[in-house]
C-alpha cells in the first residue's frame, strides 16, 4: 500500500496553496485567501476584492474562488493525496468557500499530471487569435472536462448565434462604458507600466486598441483615459476563435463555485494543448441580457461565462500576489 511521510504531506499543502493563487479571476482581482489548520486548507472569499458595481451579487467572485478550489484539489492529487472537499461547509461563515483536507495516499494519473502542469502556464488572452483552428477533438474534450464537474460547455457553432453573442457583448460594453462607475471600477484594476503590484491587469496584458474580430467581440476598456496597453497590428483582423457558453442548471452559490471549478478544468486542458481563452462577461453582468441568453441560447440553463478559445503566440508574464499576502 502506498504511504506518505509527514514531510510529503506538508509539501502537498504548500503545493496546493501555491496552485490556488494561480487561478484566474475577473480583472485578476484574486479575491481569495487561505488558511491551514493541521492538514486542512480553508479557502475564503475576500469580499474586499469584490467588484461592487460589476459583480454586486458576488457571482464572478465565487467563480474565481471555484477556479482556485479546483487548483487546490488538483495539486493535492498531483502530490499523491486524495482531496477531501467540502463546499460551503458552514452556513454561519458565508465567506468560507470550501475546506480541502489531505486524504488517503493515491497515485495521480497522467491526466491529473497534465492539468497540474499548466497552473502557471495558463494565460488569459484579451484580443483576437491567429487563424490556426482549434481541433474539433479538443473542443469535444473540453466539453467532457466541464461535464466531469457537473457543468455544461456548449460551443456556439451557428454563425447567426455567434453574432448574437457578439452583439450582446458589444451592447453591454457600450452601456457600461457610458457608466462612470463601471469605468472607474475597471481601471482600478488596470496597472500602469512599471507597477509592482501583484494583482490587476498589467499594461502589457491587454492591447491599447485591439485588432477587430469578425464578428467583433468588445473588449474591456482597460486603457480608458490613458495610453497604457500594448500595441496591436490594426492592419489585419484577428480570428474570433471558438465561442463557447458555460452554463449550469441552477444559479445558486454552489452552482457558481461549480462553474469556476469546471472553467479552470477546461482552461488547464486547453492550455496543455496550446489553446488560450478570452472571456466576455459584460452581458452576464446585466440582468436582462443574461436572461435573454438563458432563454434563447442556453436552453433555460444559466450562463456563467462566455469564452472564446483560440491559438496565440503571445507569452505575456502573469502577475500574482505572494503567498505571504494570501495565507493566514
TrEMBL record:
Record's protein name: Nitroreductase domain-containing protein
UniProt xrefs under PANTHER family: NAD(P)H NITROREDUCTASE RV3131-RELATED, NADPH NITROREDUCTASE
Classification lineage: Bacteria, Bacillati, Actinomycetota, Actinomycetes, Streptosporangiales
Entry-linked Gene3D superfamilies: NADH Oxidase
InterPro entries, sorted: Nitroreductase-like (IPR000415), Nitroreductase/BluB (IPR050627)
Region (Disordered): 193-212
Entry GO MF terms: oxidoreductase activity
Organism: Nonomuraea cavernae
